[in-house]
């Protein structure tokens, strides 16, 4: 985020991916990193919209026996990230459940590796986040 600050952006969208979960980064550390990024952007006058980590339990490669555990870990990380982002001044886009259901129902939203989103998946993510970004971009009523 420090590289973004010199641009003087009015609005930033932070979309957290699955790396912290996949790499077993402790939730407190992952949430602290997001909070620091938001604080840095906010200090520079940037409005921030943050989307927390996805629910990895719907990834096709997750064995059914582990889905509950993966969902619990995903939910814990999402809650901690949302709290850290909100405390730092971000608007939190709570889209995890909606996107998880969409990806579970539409296998074409995954790329060939069955882990990352496809072009259609990224388009769905963008469309889902669009209203949050547009709302955050609206000038405050006087």
TrEMBL record:
<feature type="domain" description="SGNH hydrolase-type esterase">
    <location>
        <begin position="3"/>
        <end position="124"/>
    </location>
</feature>
<protein>
    <recommendedName>
        <fullName>SGNH hydrolase-type esterase domain-containing protein</fullName>
    </recommendedName>
</protein>
<dbReference type="InterPro" id="IPR013830">
    <property type="entry name" value="SGNH_hydro"/>
</dbReference>
<dbReference type="InterPro" id="IPR036514">
    <property type="entry name" value="SGNH_hydro_sf"/>
</dbReference>
<dbReference type="Pfam" id="PF13472">
    <property type="entry name" value="Lipase_GDSL_2"/>
</dbReference>
């Amino acid at each position: 985020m420090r590289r973004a600050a010199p641009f003087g952006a009015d609005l930033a969208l932070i979309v957290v991916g699955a790396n912290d979960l996949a790499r077993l980064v402790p939730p407190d550390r992952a949430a602290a990193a997001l909070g620091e990024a938001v604080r840095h952007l906010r200090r520079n006058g940037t409005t921030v919209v943050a989307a927390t980590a996805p629910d990895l339990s719907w990834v096709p490669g997750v064995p059914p026996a582990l889905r509950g555990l993966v969902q619990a870990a995903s939910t814990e990380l999402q809650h901690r990230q949302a709290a850290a982002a909100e405390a730092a001044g971000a608007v939190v886009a709570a889209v995890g459940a909606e996107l998880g259901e969409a990806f579970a129902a539409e296998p074409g939203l995954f790329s060939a590796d069955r882990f990352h989103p496809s072009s259609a998946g990224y388009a769905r993510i963008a469309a889902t986040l669009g209203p949050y970004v547009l709302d955050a971009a609206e000038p405050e009523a006087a």
